[in-house]
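Section: protein folds

Sequence with per-residue tokens
===
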Amino acid sequence: ISLPPNHPSLATSYNNIGGVYANMGEYSKALEYYEKDLKITLKSLPSTHPDLATSYSCIGEVYNDMGEYSKALEYYEESLKIREKALPPTHPDLANCYSNLGSVFDRMGQYSKALEYYEKAFRIYQQALPSNHPHMISSYSNIALAHKNMGQYTEALSKFEMALKLGCAILHTNHPELGTLYNSMGSVYFSMSNFPKALELYKKAL
């Protein structure tokens, strides 16, 4: 099949290939294909098209995984700008953008900034999704981890307990996400020097 060099279908293919390389941890290859996708998308679609936001977001994710946080922020912020223009204020894709930005600030050790973005994401998810949606579990967890990293252990436990309550209600009992939650809660109790409780939760994670 021969398509014109700027055909949107080519951009989709490049994005798909980039995604495979990203999942394999081959970040330079992922960037090569994501940048080809972005180049075509910029030429072929309007400046507020959701696919353009996705292209920027994919590149941001690779830079985040590579530890190049200033680059990750740059691309995630471009994605956010487009989505803020193109989408209603309670669209879940906007929440995903805020969550992505939160994760970068979290990795940079800027926990209060991370918390700010995680809470923005949470407020949208609360309005846009059913209360038992799996995204709510990760949203509670993100907020909890930011509180933990700031030494705010009571707040962290409160959010982890909400995540765990929801997780136990909607996930099967041996779902890996539950193990992650038990481990995370255990680490909070460990930080509080409540070692028996930490041990109890770590054992539940097994």
Notes: The radius of gyration is 19 Å.
